[in-house]
Write the structure tokens for this entry.
Amino acid sequence: MANAHPHAMAPAKPGKTRTAPPQRPPKFPTGGRYLAYTLFDWTGLIYLLLGFLVLKTIWTLGDGQAAWDAQIASFSHPAYIAFHILSFISVVFVGVRFFRLFPKAQPPRIGPAKPPPAPVILGMLYTVWIGATVLFGAILAGGIF
Amino acid sequence: MKHLLLKLEPFIWLMFGQGILLGTILLTGWLLVVNLGVPLGVVSDAGLEYERAHGLASTLIGKLVLAALCALPIWKGAHHMRHVFIDAGGGDRDAVIAPILYLIATVGTVLSILAVVRL
């Protein structure tokens, strides 16, 4: 894995205030908490590939039954299975990490009310996520409609 | 180019944020059924028969959901890959890399819309 560039966050023009030269954190990119940060960024590659793969799948739906059946059958290939297992792990990782931010990002007050406690916010988010997954999955699997 | 990217930042962040939120929520069910459940034989493939799939996807709601399912994760991916390149190689090349990645995301979005329009 490539190392961080020590000037990655340097401003375009140096400011008037003298500052110490930027240094790459010693644990970057895989030590300590940087591992989760780095992995979170790299899920971008999975999402990019996955988005285009879903696009290809939807496109074949417009190409007719033979193309659609061939596309669905191709997902049984071990390479696709491996990629989709990795994708599923990535998606769950992204969801869990992203939803953890919501309680921390709440303002002290929302109008006259205080925001709900962190467990309540997380509970609502996970309920929506699991509920939407069950609903969408049931529709795709033919359980509904 | 940097100025343009800054002007587009609200739109980029909108698509990126929805890519994480809606993209993740939609992809979970899609992956579990279409990409893993059916191929592994855990879920019956009856739900993905062409006539049914095409019928559902051709509705207005079906088209909106499928377009979001394609386009939003691409924006999430493009924005995060931009930061991978910044972390790895610095911000000097960002004026080149960021437009390329967002162009890919834009092309993906246009193709996503075309894919559902032609259903």
The helical segments of chain A are 34-61, 65-74, 78-104, 118-141.
